[in-house]
Amino acid sequence: MKRYNSKILENFIKNIFLKLNMSNKDALKVSKLIIQSDLYGVNTHGIFRLPNYVKRITEGGMNMNPNIKVIKERQSTALLDGDNGIGHIIMEKASKLAIKKAKKTGVAWVGVKNSNHAGAGATYAMMPLEKNMVGIYLAVGSANHLPPWGGIDMLLSTNPIAIAIPSQFKPPIVLDMATTNTSYGKVKVAASNNENMPIGWMQDEKGNPITNPKNADQGFLIPIGGPKGYGLALMIGILAGSLNGAAFGKNVIDFNKDFKTTTNTGHVLIALDIESFMPFEEFINEIDNVWNIMKSSRTMEGYSNIRLPGENRHFIFEKNTKEGIELNEDTINKLNQIAKSLKVQILN
Amino acid sequence: MKRYNSKILENFIKNIFLKLNMSNKDALKVSKLIIQSDLYGVNTHGIFRLPNYVKRITEGGMNMNPNIKVIKERQSTALLDGDNGIGHIIMEKASKLAIKKAKKTGVAWVGVKNSNHAGAGATYAMMPLEKNMVGIYLAVGSANHLPPWGGIDMLLSTNPIAIAIPSQFKPPIVLDMATTNTSYGKVKVAASNNENMPIGWMQDEKGNPITNPKNADQGFLIPIGGPKGYGLALMIGILAGSLNGAAFGKNVIDFNKDFKTTTNTGHVLIALDIESFMPFEEFINEIDNVWNIMKSSRTMEGYSNIRLPGENRHFIFEKNTKEGIELNEDTINKLNQIAKSLKVQILN
Predict the structure, then answer these.
(1) Which of B70, B73, B77 to mutate to test the interface with A (most CBs of A within 10 A)?
(2) Is A109's Cβ below 8 Å from some Cβ in B?
(3) Do B165 and A72 touch (CB under 8 A)?
(4) What are the helix (H) ranges across B114-264?
(5) What mean pLDDT value characterizes chain A?
(6) What does residue A268 show for φ and ψ, rounded to 5 degrees?
(7) Does A301 map to a domain?
(8) Are B3 and B326 in contact (CB under 8 A)?
(9) In a designed cystine with B175, which of A16, A155, A231, B199 is the match (CB 3.0 to 4.6 A)?
């Protein structure tokens, strides 16, 4: 394990994307958005994904200079066509548009099609916070690892939801979760770290638990609350996929196996202006109260304290900003292989 | 067990509310909205709740002639003050307003405060379907039965979410779920039926399962996916409660124990106009495809077929409409006690 300053990693990513013919402006943006996940400790969705992105780009499966367009628009809604660009750039645009519209009408729902993996959902759900808004992000996951409840054919992804709520003196409350007990990214990290998975993450076709992440191909993820998580994954898939004309169900290609076919990833970003309901200062003060009230609960045996969603990420962000982002040897090696092949400065 | 025609039950409820000084117009509406839950087989949220409603009304905890007002309004948002009326009437108004606004701008988010229990969330999530929209309902539950994850103080409710998606020839897809493995209503029905609860529904302060619903007071509900369900319950509570100036956390009074204090229940209704994203006909055809694709999955041992959210309710609706709504003896006795005390025609 080794820690790297975030600026060094951002620069590393930027140089790689520049070599792959991304514009300077976009490369700067994407590198920051990718590293933001790592700063918050979401190491499954940050620089760890770069080799995958690069492979897709070099094999022709992603457009380096997309013409991102609003193809349908009303006062409080829009549908964006991402032109097969990298998800980060498209979702940043979607967030900005949602914020702009919500400022005018109170709420906005922006759908996205023809996008790609965009990293951690919290990155985009948090964007409206700067403008005194709540942010909600939905997405169709980039590979199907979940069958409908009671089934064994993987027709659904871990379709995640992220919700971000601004606060006053406390960190914002940020929930960013797959609708399965774990994300497939965590399975990949477990495999990369040679660690076993707990029971409840995955099961095989007979319903037996899978604990070795190297056997992940023999089964599938388990939804939260059984049929309820299946229901949520399905609904998020319909709202972020079907409704946007994006891939859902059988149309979702596995972005870890097929690097050529357009993924047509769908996302949604909702921005909700707090002032539509109550004065902003009153609301954020109330959210600090919510923090204190939840923290006031006595704990169960085996738990030392109550955590709020996003609390850990907040403190990891402070630590990683100061001390740097930790990468394991496997990841560093993979990144440096790419750097060498593209003749870019490697990570030391 | 005995089956009653829905019209007979509607009339029964209407007569009771008329005796309690509700207007004829509202009594007609509420009785239909309550029985709609029973028609769909959601027997935990229908006429089963009437004794509770009546107790609250007679003890002065609910306003029979509320002045429901829009107290904040923008193009795509509104905040309704329900003036402590029964939730059904308030949420019907909220749904209508959301639909009207979404028709103009594409999406609307209507928050509600000073409301009360409104029955099943699906009732309101389904209202936008008639206008070619998606409906989403959020609410703060009417009693705290859930601690924050790792805690033992019940500061959260089962805060439910309902999402309804229109279809073409298939039944609509309707998810209506608590963010706990079960709703407290199901615990009460189990108690009323003298049935044991499965492991996973409730646990005590040491984390041991509770299976006898008569011991429900000794523990609390378990959230779906552990900390994820806690996170969802918290976020729904903030959006439907805090943001609307409605009760959340310590302010939630237990509507099964305290019948005098104003509950200040909060709800949210979101209406999303499908035509903002794609032609309606194309979308509902696609939803029928989603049905067929999910149904196409091979099943796991022990499962005979794949179900879509709302599939069961749809077929129960058809059966109950034809054959009547089934009530158990305990419920019939409780309802008839009320009828007798109010000098209203009893159920035979």
Answers:
(1) B77
(2) yes
(3) no
(4) 121-125, 184-192, 227-240
(5) 96
(6) -135, 140
(7) no
(8) yes
(9) A231
* Confidence at residue A126, expressed as pLDDT on a 0 to 100 scale: 98
Tell me which of A232, A283, A285 to substitute to probe the interface with B (most B C-beta atoms closer than 10 Å): A232
Q: B73 to chain A: nearest residue by CA?
A: A276
Tens-digit pLDDT profile for residues B281-332:
999 999 999 999 999 999 999 999 999 999 999 999 999 999 999 999 999 9
Asked if A177's CB is within 8 angstroms of B277's CB, the reply is no
pLDDT tens digits, A45-78: 999 999 999 999 999 999 999 999 999 999 999 9
Q: What is the Cα–Cα distance from A231 to A247, expressed in whole angstroms?
A: 18
CATH at A22: 3.30.1370.60
Average pLDDT over every residue of A143-168: 97
* B108/A152 touch (CB, cutoff 8 Å), yes or no: no
Between A and B, how many CB-CB pairs are < 8 A? 241
Judged by a CB distance cut-off of 8 A, whether residue A63 touches chain B is no
Query: CB–CB of A62/A53 below 8 Å?
Result: yes
Enumerate residues 249 to 288 of chain B having a beta carbon within 8 A of any beta carbon in chain A: 249-250, 272-274, 276-278, 283, 286-287
Q: Give the pLDDT confidence score for residue A256 in this predicted structure.
A: 87
- According to the model, what pLDDT value does residue A185 have? 80
Nearest chain A Cα distance for residue B333, angstroms? 34
B39 contact A CB<8A: no
Provide the domain limits for residue A59. Answer: 2-180+223-280+311-341
Q: Is B79 on the interface with A (CB under 8 A)?
A: yes
Q: Does the residue A298 lie in any domain?
A: no
Taking the CB of residue A15, how many other CB atoms lie within 10 A of it? 17
Q: Using pLDDT thresholds of 50, 70 and 90, give the confidence band for residue A184.
A: confident
Q: Which of B165, B248, B301 sits opposite A207 (nearest CB)?
A: B301
Q: What does residue B153 show for φ and ψ, rounded to 5 degrees?
A: -95, 125
pLDDT lower than 70: segments of chain B: none
Q: Is residue A6 scored above 90 in pLDDT?
A: yes
Cβ neighbourhood burial of A227 (10 Å; 0-12, 13-18, 19+): middle
B307 and A150 in contact by Cβ < 8 A? yes
User: Is A217 domain-assigned?
Assistant: no
Q: How far apart are alpha carbons B61 and B83 in whole angstroms?
A: 11
* B195: nearest Cα among B170, B208, B214, B177: B214
Domain count, chain A: 1
pLDDT score of B251: 94
